[in-house]
TrEMBL record:
It comes from Candidatus Magnetoglobus multicellularis str. Araruama. InterPro entries: CTDL_fold, Sulfatase_Mod_Factor_Kinase, SUMF_dom, SUMF_sf. Residues 1-69 form the Sulfatase-modifying factor enzyme-like domain. Pfam families: FGE-sulfatase. GO terms for molecular function: formylglycine-generating oxidase activity. This is Sulfatase-modifying factor enzyme-like domain-containing protein. It comes from the Bacteria.
């Protein structure tokens, strides 16, 4: 952008000559100048670095404006079925009620204050009954419509239990939780506490599958698939620091145990789902987890 106010250029509006011209004057044909600048104007084509307008050089009006450089954002659609779902979201936000939560968060997360937990889940309003959460301070819960709740936030990097009612407005057996914003980077550190259980969320938009793509996993929109030889590859950042990983899909629960890979039946980790992880006793109070990069 050349400036934040509309200004005249040396160039005139008119046909360009066939012969070469010399800057800075440029071609001197026509009656109208070219204008430039990030002007606020009713027509978008005039709000550019430069535009060839029909305004005379004697025009006395002034237009001022600005431009915005925004990060790309996504709408993550998380499929939910009737009953209990173990979910997470990858939008780089922490939605909270009241004061900011004093809990570990991924770096550079965006805090968004809301009036009520219901505001976060407005896309499925009336379709859910309970939400369960767990962080370093213990278990939290929220019941739909309740005026009181000890659950005060939902954030990327965490997993959540949510109960969808049987009479929800399903489409092919599913409804969709929709959250909008910039996706959190997959290389963000998720802090887990030593010798404790964790409800962990998936970052990024890549699902990790072993052997094949299971038909019992309903992937969120725009999910990419990366095949791995073992679920141990996905959890390599905490190798030897965890005991098991548990996930839940529409047809049941699945477990991966690093000490018994042969008999483990959890063979897919996907965005939109949450996972229960049991961390070993460690000399450090916390363990840093990073999702495998595709």
């Amino acid at each position: 952008m050349h400036g934040n106010a509309m200004e005249w250029c040396s160039d005139y509006y008119g046909y360009y000559p066939e012969t070469p011209v010399t800057d800075p004057k440029g071609p001197e044909s026509g009656l109208y100048h070219v204008v430039r600048g990030g002007a606020y104007y009713s027509m978008a084509r005039y709000c550019r670095s430069a535009s060839r307008s029909f305004q005379s050089e004697t025009y006395q009006g002034r237009s001022f404006g600005f431009r915005l450089a925004a990060s790309p954002f996504s709408i993550q659609k998380i499929p939910l079925y009737a009953g209990w779902n173990l979910i997470s979201f990858g939008i780089n936000k922490c939605f909270y009620v009241g004061t900011k939560p004093n809990a570990p968060m991924i770096d550079n997360i965006s805090y968004v204050k809301v009036d009520h937990i219901m505001d976060i889940l407005h896309s499925i309003d009336g379709a859910y009954k309970y939400i369960r959460a767990y962080d370093c301070t213990g278990a939290k819960s929220y019941e739909y419509g309740s005026l009181w709740s000890d659950m005060t936030y939902m954030a990327a990097g965490y997993g959540y239990w949510i109960y969808i009612k049987e009479d929800a407005n399903f489409e092919n057996g599913l409804i969709y939780l929709e959250l909008e914003g910039e996706m959190a980077s997959v290389d963000k550190i998720i802090q887990l506490r030593s010798n404790q259980w964790a409800l962990m969320g998936v970052l990024g938009n890549t699902a990790f599958c072993q052997d094949n793509v299971p038909d019992y996993v309903d992937f969120p929109s725009d999910t990419k698939i990366d095949f791995v030889s073992s679920m141990a590859d996905v959890f390599q950042s905490i190798n030897d620091q965890y005991i098991l990983v548990k996930g839940k899909y529409k047809n049941g629960s699945y477990v991966f145990t690093p000490d018994d890979i042969q008999h483990s039946d959890l063979k897919c980790i996907s965005p939109g789902f949450g996972y229960i992880v049991k961390i070993n006793q460690d000399q450090n109070p916390t363990v840093n987890f990073v999702w495998k990069k595709p």
